[in-house]
Every structure is written in structure tokens, then in C-alpha cells.
């Protein structure tokens, strides 16, 4: 402490200001210590106060509730209100309320078969199965193409309607049950239905996209994600999960849009050109695989989804058009002149 006084004393003298006595220096420093002590106490008090009223002002992800503990709509009410009407919201709410679908997302699903004939624990069974991203290079149904440890999820038809994780064993030639079961739900307030404020995580929850390491567990994915509506490279969202075959077009919109002219879409140029640009949103390699809609630079998803937004968002414009005064042709002897 003494050294500090001396240092300040020297500094003061060197800068040419009048030297102050050591006694007054001590008083100043004592006062400074008291002030900072009070400040530290105040910070502690505020922290415990905010912990008591923790909620909307806690931006850190909650350790137990995870991203589900963040009340999105409290900070982003304009987005909830934007989503608050229209067929797109209805469709996404239907998806968010489908717990087979949310489980499929969280499991890294790429395909679903309600009547899969797979060997489970040594016996061939007719069961609904979700195949995870591990099966991306395999032929589903041909277990000679499966690799050791490939994870599939078997539906528990008799018990509590959960999905059980099972791992393929090459030597056993069967899926070995792990006992780990799940059924993901976005009904955070347990009201029985997923509302608009809860649906945010369907498109923004890191857990559904197999991405770790984001601070708040909130990420931005896009319409043309592999497991949403597909893209030029992959369509991994299985229409059979949505209970109606007409959803085939819904899950593969990105595929159709990127098909060369003459087949499906005249908007292919629009989509493929915007896919050649990176967006500002990280790709993050969902479930360890680079997204099919990753931009050319790598690391980021492309701007391809802006094509979807181009047709599927309604931007209102209020036009006030002033019509020109019509020429009446009423004066037969008007002098001849050039038009401007
Ligand atoms: C405590 C307030 C708060 C809460 C709660 C909150 N956010 Fe945010 N969020 C913010 C702020 C602040 C930003 C940064 C805004 C900016 O960059 O302009 C942000 C940014 C974002 C972004 C943009 C990220 C990007 O890379 O551009 C997304 C997506 C997002 N929030 C989604 C969510 C979702 C989903 C939830 C609920 C799980 C949520 N937020 C809850 C305050 C909040
Ligand atoms: C149907 C999927 C979907 C749902 C549901 C959804 N979002 Fe998004 N959100 C997106 C996409 C796609 C983008 C990126 C758009 C772009 O390229 O700018 C985005 C962007 C954002 C951004 C960053 C852009 C900005 O305006 O700052 C925020 C914040 C955000 N969403 C919050 C929310 C919140 C909060 C909810 C729930 C009330 C929600 N989102 C629901 C798909 C969705
Ligand atoms: C050129 C304009 C255009 C583009 C670009 C476009 N769409 Fe569409 N989309 C439409 C039209 C038009 C419909 C039919 C609407 C109807 O029949 O009510 C449609 C229907 C859909 C539907 C089915 C809705 C339903 O309820 O059956 C989905 C899902 C969809 N589009 C998603 C996408 C996605 C994802 C992208 C981007 C990869 C995209 N669309 C790009 C114009 C477009």
C-alpha cells in the first residue's frame, strides 16, 4: 500500500502539480476503498435480488430447463405477433404439436417407416422406426448396409408410447435396445397444446438440430434445411410422419424448387443463385453432418431460404397513385406541336 502512495506521489511531482501530503493521500485512498467496498456490496445485493426475481432478465440458459426456460415471446413479442396468424403458423403449430415429429428432430432422424421390419433384440418385428443420420449412406431395410452402432429409434407400441434408442450390432445382426427412451414435447406450460410463443423452438432449438456449444441453445436454421423442407442436396424430412401423403410436396419444396427448368420450377435460377451465397447464420454441422443447404464458403447456411420468403411472406404496400390529367381532344384548332 505504501508503495502505491509513493508511486502516486512521484507521478504527481513529475507531472508538475503541487505535491500532496502522504496524510491526505491516505485519506483519499481510504475514501476510495470505502466507496468501492460499498459498490461491491451493492453488486452482491443486486445479484441476489435479481436471482429472487429471475425470469425474463436471465439471458443465460437455465441449467435444468435448458433453452425451454427462456420465455422467447417476452423479449421478441413482435415475432410472436408476426407468427400470430395465417396458414404458415397453423402448419408449423401442427408440426410443433406432433411429438413423434419433435422426437424425430431431436433424435437426428432422416427417415421414418411406420411398418419397418427390423430385427430388434434378436427377433424380427413390425414396428414404427425412426432412422437417425447414421443411416445416411445405407439402404434402409437392407441391414447388410448398416454399420456398427448406427442408432435407430423403435416405437413402444404397447407401453407408454415412447421411442427407444437401439444400436445396430454387426455381429449380432440385430438392433440392441439401450433402455434410453424419449418423447420430446414443446408444450412448455403443460397446457395440452403448443402455442405460438412455444413454437419458436421448433425452428430455433439447438437440440433439434444437433448443434452444441451455442451460448443460449438458440440457433437460426432455415426453411430449406435438410430436415425441414429439403434443398438441392437432401430431403430428410419424412412426409409419412405427418400422417397424410399430400405432405410429400410440403417436405420436399426445396428439392422441387432447385430442379432444373423443364421439370418443375421456373424459379430454379432464383433459388440456386441465392444458394450460392452464405447467410450470416452458422451451419454448425447438425448431428455432425454439414447441412445440404450450406453455402459455398462453408461454415454458414446459404441464403437459399430467402427464395421461400420471397413468395411466402406478405409485405404490405400502401400505394397512392396519382393519375395524369387525361387529354380531352376537344380543341380541333389547337396549334401543332411535338410531344415531349
Ligand atoms: C432476455 C431477453 C431474451 C429472451 C428471453 C430471448 N431472447 Fe432471443 N435475443 C435477445 C437479444 C437481445 C438478441 C440480439 C438482438 C440483436 O442482435 O439485435 C436476441 C437474438 C435472437 C436471435 C437472432 C440470432 C442471430 O444470430 O441473429 C434469435 C433467433 C433469437 N434471439 C431467438 C430466441 C428464442 C427462440 C428464444 C426463446 C427460446 C429467445 N430468443 C429468448 C433477447 C432475448
Ligand atoms: C417456421 C420456423 C420459425 C418459427 C416457428 C420461428 N422462427 Fe424465428 N426465424 C426463422 C428463420 C428461417 C429465420 C431467419 C430469417 C432470415 O434469414 O433473416 C428466423 C429469424 C429469427 C430472428 C432473427 C431475425 C430478426 O428479426 O432479428 C429472431 C430474433 C427470431 N427468429 C425469433 C423467433 C421467435 C421469438 C419465435 C417464436 C415466437 C420464432 N422466431 C419462431 C424461423 C422461425
Ligand atoms: C415462386 C414462388 C414460391 C417459392 C419461391 C416458394 N413457394 Fe412454396 N408455395 C408457393 C405457392 C403458390 C404455393 C401453393 C399455395 C396454395 O396452394 O395454397 C406454395 C405452397 C407451399 C407449401 C404447402 C403449403 C400447404 O399448406 O400445402 C409449402 C410447405 C411451401 N410452399 C414451402 C416452400 C419452401 C420451403 C420454399 C423454399 C424452399 C418455397 N415454398 C418456395 C409459392 C412459392
Order of helices and strands: HHHHHHEEEEEHHHHEEH
- Quaternary organisation of the protein chains: single chain
Q: What's the number of extended β-strand segments?
A: 7
Helix content: 25-40%
The major β-sheet equals: 5 strands, antiparallel
The shape, in one word, is: elongated
Proportion of strand residues: 15-25%
Runs with pLDDT <50, length 5+? Answer: 1-23, 38-56
Derived structural class: alpha+beta
Average pLDDT figure: 80
Q: Counting H and I runs of at least 4 residues, what is the number of helices? A: 11
Give the N-to-C terminal Cα separation.
Answer: 88 Å
Bound small molecules, by name, code or SMILES, are: heme C
Over all CA atoms, what is the radius of gyration? 31 Å
Spatial strand arrangement across the major sheet: 1-2-3-4-5
Amino acid at each position: 500500500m505504501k508503495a502505491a502512495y509513493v508511486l502516486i506521489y512521484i507521478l504527481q511531482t513529475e507531472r508538475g502539480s503541487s505535491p500532496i501530503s502522504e496524510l491526505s493521500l491516505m485519506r483519499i485512498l481510504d475514501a476510495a476503498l470505502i466507496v468501492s467496498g460499498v459498490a461491491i456490496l451493492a453488486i452482491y445485493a443486486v445479484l441476489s435480488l435479481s436471482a429472487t426475481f429471475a425470469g425474463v432478465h436471465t439471458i443465460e440458459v437455465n441449467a435444468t430447463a435448458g433453452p425451454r426456460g427462456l420465455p422467447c415471446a417476452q423479449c421478441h413479442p413482435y415475432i410472436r405477433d408476426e407468427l400470430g396468424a395465417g396458414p404458415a403458423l397453423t402448419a408449423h403449430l401442427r408440426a410443433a404439436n406432433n411429438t413423434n415429429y419433435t422426437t424425430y428432430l431431436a433424435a437426428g432422424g432422416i427417415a421414418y417407416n411406420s411398418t419397418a421390419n427390423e430385427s430388434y433384440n434378436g427377433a424380427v418385428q413390425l414396428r414404427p422406426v425412426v432412422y437417425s443420420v447414421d443411416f445416411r449412406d445405407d439402404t434402409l431395410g437392407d441391414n447388410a448396409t448398416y454399420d456398427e452402432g448406427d442408432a435407430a429409434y423403435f416405437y413402444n407400441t404397447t407401453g407408454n408410447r415412447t421411442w427407444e434408442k437401439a444400436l445396430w450390432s454387426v455381429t449380432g445382426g440385430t438392433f440392441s435396445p439401450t433402455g434410453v427412451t424419449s418423447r420430446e414435447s414443446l408444450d412448455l406450460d403443460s397446457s395440452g397444446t403448443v402455442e405460438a410463443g412455444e413454437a419458436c423452438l421448433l425452428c430455433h432449438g439447438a437440440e433439434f438440430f444437433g448443434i452444441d456449444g451455442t451460448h443460449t441453445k438458440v440457433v437460426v436454421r432455415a426453411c430449406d434445411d435438410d430436415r425441414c423442407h429439403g434443398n438441392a442436396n437432401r430431403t430428410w424430412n419424412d412426409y409419412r410422419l405427418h400422417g397424410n401423403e399430400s405432405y410429400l410436396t410440403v417436405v420436399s419444396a426445396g428439392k422441387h424448387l432447385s430442379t432444373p427448368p423443364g421439370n418443375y420450377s421456373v424459379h430454379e435460377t432464383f433459388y440456386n443463385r441465392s444458394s450460392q451465397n452464405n447467410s450470416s447464420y452458422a451451419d454448425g454441422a447438425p448431428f455432425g453432418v454439414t447441412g445440404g443447404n450450406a453455402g459455398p464458403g462453408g461454415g454458414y447456411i446459404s441464403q437459399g431460404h430467402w427464395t421461400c420468403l420471397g413468395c411466402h411472406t406478405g409485405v404490405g404496400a400502401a400505394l397512392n397513385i396519382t393519375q395524369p390529367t387525361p387529354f380531352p381532344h376537344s380543341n380541333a384548332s389547337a396549334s401543332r406541336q411535338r410531344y415531349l
